[in-house]
Amino acid sequence: MRAAVVSKGEFQVEDLPAPVPGPGQVLISVTRCGICGSDLHARVHCDELADLAAATGYDRFMRSDQRIVMGHEFTGDIIEYGPGTRRRWKPGTPVVALPILRAGRQPELTGLSVYAPGGYAEQVVVQESMTFPVPNGLSPDHAALTEPMAVAWHAVRKSRITKGQTAFVIGCGPIGLAVVTMLKAAGVRTVVASDLSPRRRELAAACGADVVVDPGVESPWDATPKKSRITGASDILNLGFDAMDRLRRLPNIPWWYLFRALHTLDRGPSAPVVFECVGVPGIIDQILTAAPPLTRVIVVGVCMQQDAFHPATAINKEIELRFVLGYNPGEFRDTLHLIADGKVDPSPLITGTVGLEGIPTAFTTLASPNHHAKILIDPQSPRTAP
Asked: Residue limits of the Enoyl reductase (ER) domain (predicted)?
């Protein structure tokens, strides 16, 4: 098969032996594969990423001196099954799969490990138990976006945001755009998107953002039509006084049960939910400084450098800081069906397609935020530029 192989940061299209599915695995013919922002980082910073992965318990991440076939946002058609499979679907069935394999008890990250070549190729091996048929005749272009949209769906679910809370999406690259899309799919009524790039702001509006802000001109916190009643520590304290004044007027009522119930239900005064989708040093501290009290911050952007912020700022405002990674199989499956059922439209994210020979140009183009968001790879396409 033909595949784009990267080593020491350079891509080369080569003829490789066709992969052979192992026990519990399936071989598929790749029809589309997305280029992820993490691929852009891994091409040049994989050794640093490998050290970080090893520190957290995974020591098989790609290294710069290895020959790697990248790509973990793929869809394709079933070719053949390996031993020990249930052969659930006929050959030719279009499928998507979580980009992870397992040999024995050893997991491998597809497209990010030398032991699990990815979708920048004509064929890729997937795990049958992590594979899902593509429903409703969904196009390969849209099916390939299941993986990045699942990342966004996981972030939205972890945020526990309600429909009435205001969502702020800081950074409108591909993952920020996906978060905007999934927030609207979840029924969130007010989504404020912020990015310096005019092109990304245009795409954020196309994805459903209710308010789009250039942070170089206007603060996103001032742009929301629904102003927070809580803007400082004094407001929190006064809220407590006001609540107790009202509750004390009710005779023989165990008011403390109300506070226990609110805690159990994870409910309290309405506050914004912020999705940090930039992933550069200093952004978290900027958000903690500017966001109103009781804000919940979901860190989706992957910052590759050490960062610093002032914990006392977050403490004084009682801001929650949550970090998210990936998704679970249920979220992956649900995302696929949200797209196939027309409840989620990922098409605004797709801004170009290339063949295997066009991958270097696509990577160079994606380094700039002014033109493209998600570029797809069609292994059969002759296109060398998006």
From this structure: 4-377
Answer yes or no: do 172 and 286 share one domain: yes
310 shares a domain with 200? yes
Q: How far apart are CA 48 and CA 368, in angstroms?
A: 22
CATH, residue 253: 3.40.50.720
113 and 163 assigned to the same domain: no
The neighbouring-strand residues paired with 96 are: 75, 132
Q: How many CA atoms lie within 13 A of 291 on its CB side?
A: 32
Exposure letters 22-58 (e unless 16+ CB within 10 A, then b):
bebbbbbbbbbbbbbbbbeebbebbeebbeebeeeee
Q: Are residues 160 and 97 in the same domain?
A: no
> Which helix or strand (DSSP H or E) is residue 212 part of?
strand 211-213
Q: 27, 110, 71, 151: which is closest to 376 by C-alpha?
A: 71
User: Which residue segment(s) compose the domain that 109 sits in?
Assistant: 2-145+346-377
Write down the residue that tokens 């939205």 correspond to.
Answer: 156
Residue 356: inside a domain, yes or no?
yes
Do 91 and 186 belong to one domain?
Answer: no
The H or E element that residue 185 is part of is: helix 174-185
pLDDT in tens, the chain (386 residues): 999 999 999 999 999 999 999 999 999 999 999 999 999 999 999 999 999 999 999 999 999 999 999 999 999 999 999 999 999 999 999 999 999 999 889 999 999 999 999 999 999 999 999 999 999 999 999 999 999 999 999 999 999 999 999 999 999 999 999 999 999 999 999 999 999 999 999 999 999 999 999 999 999 998 887 777 777 778 888 888 998 999 988 888 898 988 898 888 877 777 899 999 999 999 999 999 999 999 999 999 988 888 999 999 999 999 999 999 999 999 999 999 999 999 999 999 999 999 999 999 999 999 888 889 999 999 999 999 99
Q: Closest by alpha carbon to 211, among 176, 166, 151?
A: 166
